[in-house]
Specification:
It is a single chain. The chain has 230 residues and is of the alpha+beta class. 58% of the residues lie in helices and 17% in strands. It contains seven helices and six strands. The strands form two sheets. It has a four-stranded antiparallel β-sheet with strand order 4-5-3-6. A two-stranded antiparallel sheet has the order 1-2. The longest helix has 29 residues. The radius of gyration is 25 Å and the shape is elongated.
């Protein structure tokens, strides 16, 4: 078999490996109904591998040219910076204080790195990275699930003055009492007297004195009413 044929088979093998590894991480995202799933991760991985192959071998004919400067990392560097645009598309702003898709954006960035590694022929680091990503995603999800099960979750609706710093005071007071804010939603309802309605999803341990926390929140200047979801 000629050197050219061997090179073509090796290139195709790298592209298939990149597609497989990208699909593995994409499948995990697909199972959780995330913004970017199997197809997106697969395409990012294959595209990154192809760009790496092009960067290494595509301009080899110009190596002997006196005015040519050969840098295999140049195109690869553009993938690292350019993947941010795709990652940004996976991040959704659901409300003023709720943002989702950061983990999916991070997996897209990792998949691009995996594709570049496979395109350069570094198979073992790429496979190990996929393994580590899946293990970490699984373990973190298990830890979060156990933490959620051990905590209580309640809703809190506040009518407070629409002025700078109010939400910061609320968050600070809750943090001092050991209460974590999981979600914040600012209602679209308009109050003529300069007040706004904010819905908080809270998590806290059973040791927290909820009534005492609410009383302390009522003591903040600018808080008009608090409704606690039992």
């Amino acid at each position: 078999m000629s050197d050219l044929a061997m090179f073509n088979w090796e290139s195709m093998f790298r592209l298939f490996v990149a597609a497989l590894l990208g699909a593995v991480i994409g499948w995990e995202r697909e199972q959780r109904n995330k913004q970017a799933g199997l197809k997106t991760h697969l395409l990012v991985s294959v595209g990154s591998a192809l760009i790496m192959l092009l960067s290494i071998y595509g301009f080899s004919d110009f190596n002997d040219h006196p005015n040519a400067r050969f840098d295999p990392a140049r195109l690869a560097a553009q993938v690292v910076s350019g993947i941010g645009f795709i990652g940004a598309g996976a991040i959704l702003r659901q409300s003023n204080m709720i943002i989702s898709g950061l983990t999916t954006a991070a997996t897209l960035w990792v998949v691009a790195a995996i594709g570049l590694s496979v395109g350069a022929g570094y198979y073992i680091p790429a496979v190990v990275t996929v393994f580590l990503v899946l293990v970490m995603m699984y373990l973190v999800r298990k830890i979060e699930t156990r933490m959620i099960r051990g905590d209580q979750h309640r809703g809190l609706t506040l009518i407070l003055k629409d002025q700078p710093g109010m939400l910061g005071q609320i968050a600070s007071k809750l943090g001092e009492e050991g209460v974590n804010i999981r979600k914040i939603n600012i209602s679209d309802e308009d109050y003529d007297d300069g007040y706004i309605e904010i819905d908080l999803q809270l998590s806290f341990s059973q040791r927290v004195d909820v009534v005492g926390v609410i009383e302390k929140l009522k003591g903040i200047d600018g808080v008009r009413r608090i409704q606690y979801d039992e």
